[in-house]
Design goal:
Blueprint (H helix, E strand, L loop, with lengths): L5 H7 L1 H32 L2 H28 L2 H23 L5 H25 L9 H30 L1 H19 L12 H7 L6 H15 L3 H15 L2 H12 L4 H29 L1 H19 L5 H29 L5 H13 L2 H15 L1 H18 L13
Helix pairs in contact: 2-3, 2-6, 2-7, 3-5, 3-9, 3-15, 3-16, 4-5, 4-7, 5-15, 6-7, 6-12, 6-14, 9-15, 10-15, 10-16, 10-17, 11-12, 12-13, 12-14, 13-14, 13-17, 16-17
Amino acid sequence: MIGRPPTVSLWRNRNYRVFLLIQTFSALGDSFSFVAIPLLVLHSTGSVVQMGLVTGATGVASIVTGLFAGVIADRFDRRRLLMLSDVARCLLYALIPLVWLFATPMWLIYTVVPLTGGFAMLFQVTYVAVVPAIVEPDQITRANAHLFGSYAVATVGGPALAGFVAAAFGPVAAIGIDAATFAVSAAGILLVRLRPTPPPAGDEEKASEGVAGGGLRGEFLAGIRFLWAHPVLRPLTVLLSLVIFLTHGMTDVIIFRVKKDLGYGDDTVGYVLSAGTVGTFLASFVVTRVRKGLGFGPSWVGATALGGVAVGCLGLTDSVPVIGALSAGMLLATGVAGICSMSLRQEVTPGHLLGRVTAAFWTTHYSLGPLGAAAVTAGAAGFGVARVCLAIGAGVVCVALSGMLTGIVRSESSA
């Protein structure tokens, strides 16, 4: 298998093709709830602060789940975990349209959406750990780019379609469609076969053991210790924590800007978010060449800084097409940085630790996300979108440039 062209090998890999198709379909459904949940909250309460609280509550659930998601992903059958996560989200999201036929209880949103966020975290941690069991080591960045691109293809039309469905039948109908896609995704995972994870050898086995007292805490700390000992993953985790704090509520801010500040309808919100996902699609095309040409560090720092510039400009325009274009630029930058970051972790982390390292990484850098979402949406309501976007954009640029003072910019793609 060594020496075969990665592109040819990937498309001849049946498990990879099936996995790519399943994730594309699932992403199409995800884009419905991505639009429908904030719209449902806004329709029910008229409050951008409530939108931020729901986003923040979902972030808290993800953080709590992340404390043990990595241990679960490293202990149990990863394919079954993916199926479990999809089935659980299908059932939870299906509750919303069923209950909304008889009442409109906001407590259901505050219960169901965070729970789905927890299962989403379990799925995401397992998903990252699964990719190296489907493709070869030298294909990881390219495979992640394809998967990211398939997500973009699905979500380019998804938000616009969700906006139309929400405008015609209400946001709960769009959430029901999302529930159905999770059912199809769970069934499709049955067709995917994974290579077994090699067992850890001597020293690696010791390194993965917990600290004195062992148990769940020790196993989770094995991921933390690996992150902290790695010269690139350590500063990257800190910087990403700051970026997530600043940007976690940006989707809510964009929706608020388009609907409340500019007075457009749900279908226009769908158009804007669809335009934004074009940037995600473009990122999947350029990331492999960018990382190969510049190396990991310059790619991540440059992309993150450009994303900050796009965020800063969002509040300076009243033009919906310009807002869509800036959203695309923001997600292009986020996509390049995110694919590089995920691929690096998959490349440098031993397979038996990958779930725990991924969970530790995401739990750490998402820990500030709920606070950030609440602060950003409250700031948008109190001070206006323009000022908040300028402040966030400047902050992201500063965080990115501070990466030049760390080992990130001196790292090669293999770190």
